[in-house]
Structure formats: structure tokens, C-alpha cells
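ok so I'm stuck.
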Amino acid sequence: MRMISGYEIANVFLLVYAGLFPIVNPIGGAPIFLGLTRHCTDEERHALALGVTLNSFFLLLGSLLIGSYVLEFFGITLPIVRIAGGLIVAATGWTLLQEKDDFTDDRAAHEPKIPTDTFYPLTMPITVGPGSIAVAITIGSQRPRDEVFSQLASLGLAAIAGVVAMAATIYVCYRYAEGTVGALGESGTNVVVRLSAFILFCIGIEIIWNGYSALAQVAG
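replied:
not stuck anymore, here's the structure
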């Protein structure tokens, strides 16, 4: 039985985290969260940050682990999912790269007057929207099918760790939103967004190539 190397585990962890970070963009969401909770006390804001974090974790985890199975149930093959999802990921990264320097997160369009609860609109669509769910499903569809259970378990734990790290990042950015926004400033936020967008674009191209390669093998 082939042993899963530490490199493979680290690669899965980084793929999940790096793939989700640019599209979830908790740094860009921090000022929106702060604006929506500006009338809350510190204790209420901290509780909302925790609630949003938990909701986001379960949404992303469910999309990552079972999202592709749902698509398969409707007869959509994984290579097609990878190509379509890769196109979405690459297009999202390209769009972010083409944004003007005075970057403003378009999630602000969803801002209501007062946040009603931790799920809507703070979790969805502001933190985890359709794009984030599509990315999670696409990444989850790349799990290997020829590994034994113990190997899949190791890779699965690495993927879950990536989602946990993403949720932890959301919590830190939202919990300390006031300090985060003040420390980065507009120019610092722009730099983070640009670098993240380029990584996202590269990940999208890689996912498209994986899907094309799988289709080519089937056709061959």
C-alpha cells in the first residue's frame, strides 16, 4: 500500500486554503462586516463573528465533501465539473486582477440596514457566496478515486484542515475587523487582493488542465 507523503498532505491543505482565500476574501469582507455591525456592542459583534465563522465552515465543508456527489447524482461528470469550475475560478481571478486600484468589494451591494442573524446576510452571500461554493465543489471534485480508505482519510483530513484554517482566518478578520482595516489601509488591502487574484487565476488554469487531461484519457 502506498504511503501518503507529508508533501502530498501539505499540498492538499494549501490547495484548499489558497483556493478559497481569494474568493472568500475575509480581508475584503472585514470592512463590510464592520459596517453592518457598527451599531452593535463589542460583545455582540464578537458573537456575530463567531456565528458567521461556524456557518461559513459548515457551508464550505459540505460543498467540499459532498458537493461533487450531488452533481454526479444529476449525471454531471467530474471532468466537466473541473473544467467548468476551473473556468469560473480563472475568470474570477482575472476579473479581480482587472479591478481598479480603488478596490471595493461588490458584496457591499448586499448590505441591509441591520444584520438580522449570523446566516443571512452576514454568512451568505457576504462571506460565502455562490462563487465560494463553486470553488469548494470544484476543489473537492479533484479527490483521487484510486486510493484506499486510509489514504483518502489522510487527504480528507488535510482538506478539512484547510477549511478550518479558512474559517479561522474569517474569524480573526471579523473579530478584529476594526484593527485589520486600520492596519492594512487601502493600499495594503489592494496588494493582498492582487496577489490573491493571481494565485486564484493560476489555480483555475490548473483545474481546467486536470479536467481536460481526464477527458483526454477517456477519449483515448
